[in-house]
Design goal:
The structure is a single chain. By secondary structure, the chain is of the alpha+beta class. The protein contains one helix and six strands; from the N terminus they run H-E-E-E-E-E-E. The chain has one helix at residues 2-21, and strands at 46-50, 54-61, 64-71, 83-87, 93-101, 104-108. The protein has a six-stranded antiparallel β-sheet, with no helix packed on it. Strand 5 (93-101) and strand 6 (104-108) form a beta hairpin. The longest helix is centred in the first third of the chain and has 20 residues, at 2-21.
Length: 113
């Protein structure tokens, strides 16, 4: 009887070991996984300039340029500034940017001839 019980325990242990191993975590699995999603953000062309007192950022938006003006030391917006832009050379023009919000100005670009 002891031999029969021993065989039964061995068989049960073998069945448990074989069936349980398929549920264990393992590497190099062949399950399909979704490809990681890559975020892509288009950024408008921009330029910046700074002095000891001011920081200016230009952002091109189609037929206009947004201009952000703030104080360099504390990043406080500069409202009510008179911003006059002059380009020389090919496509030369001169224009004044209009304030659209405190510290934000818009410069309309001339239409191409």
């Amino acid at each position: 009887m002891k031999a029969g019980l021993f065989k039964l325990l061995c068989a049960s242990a073998l069945i448990f070991a074989v069936s349980g191993s398929s549920a264990w975590a393992h590497g190099a699995d062949d399950h399909e996984h979704a490809a990681p999603v890559t975020a892509s953000v288009a950024i408008a062309p921009r330029a910046s300039a700074q002095t000891e007192d001011f920081e200016l950022v230009l952002v091109w938006q189609g037929k206009s340029v947004l201009i952000y003006l703030d104080q360099f030391a504390d990043n406080a917006v500069v409202a009510g500034a008179n911003l006059e832009v002059e380009l020389t050379g090919v496509g030369a023009f001169k224009a004044v940017a209009k304030q659209i919000a405190p510290g934000e100005y818009r410069l309309e670009l001339p239409k191409a001839a």
